[in-house]
């Protein structure tokens, strides 16, 4: 197939969250499966600063937006066979850091910025004479593309057989935009209505994308069910229910070259499920890095993530003083809310030798935490898919999770009696439930050592590669293509 992936971010170029992981990895996986793939991204300031071996592909391409015509340049990078990456350069919109907000509030013109990007994606494909079978759109930033294909391009023979897929990575981000941008986006009164793009006297780009996409995907089967109900749908479940037969929950994979304890150059000694004893070298190095007491007999609990409400750090914070009375060590890596950054950042002073904290993000430390921890904390309120629990299991680090979304789909509860399980899950999102589950893991560490080792081995044997996911995407793409042809 000829596949286009339009995304506001993608690894290894730019990433703020799981969206970047998925878009970048899917581009590689599809191209390795011999599909012809184009990945389209904005040419952000940070990408330009690191650009090597990029060439100008199109100069001064005119893009019609409402009553105005804007000119952009297009850059090309071709990292492998069957994959081309095009970057759309328009400095007024994309020469900004951070890419979505100023550190406090979302940019007021985000809707206009990504409407331009969405329209430019299609205009560039025409310029390149690349007729895609399917365009995979990601979240609200490219949710206008299905509308453009249906309403602007339906008479254009070029896109006659092009189907659109809208992937929902996190439904809480919806692209709420002022109504004054309607004309610029190419929306008229027929689209700015409650059934389509209008919501709470504003434009909701994600909601409109649901209406026009040929198929909809999410990043895990459980999340596909959760968004059909409130509060999981964040106000959009009634509109998604109209399309429920067209929604597929496809679990994300992970990059098994980047996240592999046998290949990881950030850890002191490689290991796998047959050489699990070598994991202790990572633990000792982790304790050293974070100024913890070096003791391989004490369990280390790790946390990597945004210090934000979604990640459940409020309930974790409430039980910290209790669990730190136990014989455990904690390691934190993350940044976000100022209150929690200060709270977690000061823990090493309050509990010297027991707690280590790094406020910010560090690739080397993230790998070392995954490898060196014995347990990994993910008490998220919601988690569409989650990747860290899969990284953790790959490294023999058992996750402690709230049984929601992708966490529920990937982590099986530890069961000594039936010799099953790959982690520890709790259902009630409360301080006591989290504390008791950490206590359960701690009890297992000291009293069920052999059973715990078997759980580590089971976890490491799990296949979290993209192989199965790619097969499911193939099926969704073929269904969307058939739907588009039937629409004609």
Main features:
single chain, 488 residues, alpha/beta, Rossmann fold, 2 domains, nine-stranded mixed β-sheet, six-stranded parallel β-sheet, 19 helices, 20% strand
What is the fold's blueprint, element by element?
Layout: E1 2-6, H1 18-32, E2 36-42, H2 45-50, E3 55-65, E4 68-80, E5 83-89, H3 91-94, H4 110-128, E6 134-138, H5 144-152, E7 163-168, E8 176-177, H6 182-185, E9 198-199, E10 202-204, H7 205-212, E11 215-218, H8 221-226, H9 237-241, E12 247-249, H10 279-289, E13 300-304, H11 313-323, E14 329-334, H12 338-345, H13 347-350, E15 355-359, H14 363-372, E16 375-378, H15 388-394, E17 398-402, H16 405-410, E18 424-426, H17 431-447, H18 449-461, H19 467-487
Parallel strand pairs: 1-2, 1-6, 2-5, 6-7, 7-11, 11-12, 13-14, 13-16, 14-15, 16-17, 17-18
Antiparallel strand pairs: 3-4, 4-5, 8-10, 9-10
Count of DSSP strands = 18
Q: Give the full name of the CATH homologous superfamily of the largest domain.
A: Glycogen Phosphorylase B
Helix content: 25-40%
Which stretches of 5+ consecutive residues score pLDDT under 50? none
Q: What is the straight-line distance between the termini?
A: 20 Å
Mean pLDDT: 96
CATH architecture of the largest domain: 3-Layer(aba) Sandwich
Q: Name the CATH class of the largest domain.
A: Alpha Beta
As for the CATH topology of the largest domain, it is Rossmann fold
Indicate the structural class.
alpha/beta
> Approximately what portion of the residues adopt beta-strand conformation?
15-25%
């Amino acid at each position: 197939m000829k596949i286009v992936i339009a995304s506001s971010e993608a690894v290894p170029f730019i990433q703020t969250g799981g969206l970047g992981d998925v878009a970048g990895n899917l581009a590689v996986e599809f191209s390795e499966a011999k599909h012809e793939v184009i990945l389209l991204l904005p040419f952000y300031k940070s990408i330009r600063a690191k650009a090597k071996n990029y060439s100008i592909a199109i100069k001064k391409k005119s893009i019609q937006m409402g009553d105005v015509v804007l000119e952009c340049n297009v850059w090309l990078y071709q990292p492998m066979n069957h994959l081309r990456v095009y970057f759309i350069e328009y400095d007024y919109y994309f020469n900004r850091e951070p890419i979505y907000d100023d550190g406090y509030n979302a940019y007021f013109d985000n809707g206009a910025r990504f409407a331009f990007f969405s329209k430019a994606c299609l205009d560039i494909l025409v310029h390149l004479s690349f007729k895609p079978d399917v365009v995979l759109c990601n979240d609200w930033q490219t949710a206008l593309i299905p509308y453009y294909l249906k309403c602007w391009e339906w008479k254009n023979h070029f896109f006659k057989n092009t189907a659109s897929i809208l992937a929902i990575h996190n439904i809480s981000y919806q692209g709420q935009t002022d109504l004054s941008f309607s004309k610029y986006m190419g929306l008229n009164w027929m689209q700015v209505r409650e059934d389509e793009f209008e919501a709470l006297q504003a434009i909701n780009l994600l909601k409109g994308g649901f209406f026009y996409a040929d198929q909809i995907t999410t990043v895990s089967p459980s999340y596909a069910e959760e968004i059909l109900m409130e509060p999981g749908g964040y106000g959009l479940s009634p509109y998604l229910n109209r399309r429920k037969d067209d929604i597929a929950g496809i679990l994300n994979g992970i990059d098994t070259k980047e996240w592999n304890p046998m290949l990881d150059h950030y850890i002191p000694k490689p290991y796998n499920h047959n050489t699990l004893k070598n994991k202790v070298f990572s633990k000792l190095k982790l304790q050293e890095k974070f100024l913890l007491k070096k003791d391989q007999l004490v369990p280390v609990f790790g946390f990597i993530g945004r210090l934000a409400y979604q990640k459940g750090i409020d309930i974790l914070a409430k039980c910290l003083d209790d669990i730190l009375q136990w014989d455990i060590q904690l390691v934190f890596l993350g940044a976000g809310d100022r209150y929690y950054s200060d709270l977690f950042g000061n823990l090493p002073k309050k509990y010297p030798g027991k707690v280590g904290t790094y406020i910010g993000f560090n690739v080397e430390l993230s790998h070392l935490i995954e490898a060196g921890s014995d347990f990994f904390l993910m008490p998220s309120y919601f988690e569409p898919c989650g990747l860290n629990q899969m990284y953790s299991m790959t490294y023999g680090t058992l996750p402690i999770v709230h049984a929601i979304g992708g966490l529920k789909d990937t982590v099986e509860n530890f069961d000594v009696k039936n010799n099953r399980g790959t982690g520890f899950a709790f259902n009630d999102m409360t301080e006591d439930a989290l504390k008791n589950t950490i206590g359960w893991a701690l009890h297992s560490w000291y009293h069920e050592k052999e059973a715990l080792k078997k759980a580590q081995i089971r976890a490491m044997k799990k296949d979290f590669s993209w192989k199965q996911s790619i097969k499911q995407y193939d099926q969704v793409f073929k269904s969307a293509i058939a739907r588009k042809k039937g629409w004609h």
